[in-house]
Amino acid sequence: MQVTDELSVITQTNRVIFLQTRLDQDYFKILSKFLLLNRYCKGIYVSSNRSARDLAEKLRRHNLDLHAMLQNGQIFVIDLVSKSVGDQEITGAFYVSSPSELSATQMAIEEVINRMNPKPRKTWLVIDSVPTLLIFNGAGALLHFLHFLIGRLRVLEYTGVIFTVEGSLSSRVFSTVAQLCDIVIK
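Below the sequence we write its predicted structure tokens.
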């Protein structure tokens, strides 16, 4: 499936998509297209892969200004990296001490939901990414977290996108997450 086909499916509202990318795909190209297609919706981006500062730099290379998006309330970034590695914080992002703090991550998501005045079918949440969260958490704890989070997305009528890299998950974890989602895109 081409990136544009993937994005048209992802932008369909009120679905939870498990998106598996190849290691050689330009992840930031996919993400920037997703953000452009959803520029009239509000969103939450949970980053366990890179700091909000680094994310802003990478998106700037694709002509997206994350700082402006944070300032106008279009996007809310929950950064699970900066505090543990000592990276500089940026205004408007929310910070959790480590990717191992799934309860704190869920509390940060709930805090953002309460602050952003979201609308059903006009709000999205991205989890980036499952393999990174597995480095810091056991499979059972992570699956419990994702089960709860996906259930919450359905109740709120949000679109959800869960990222993974092809071949990075055990077949058990992959099939369990896939079972929780509406669509799996490889």
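The mean pLDDT is 90.
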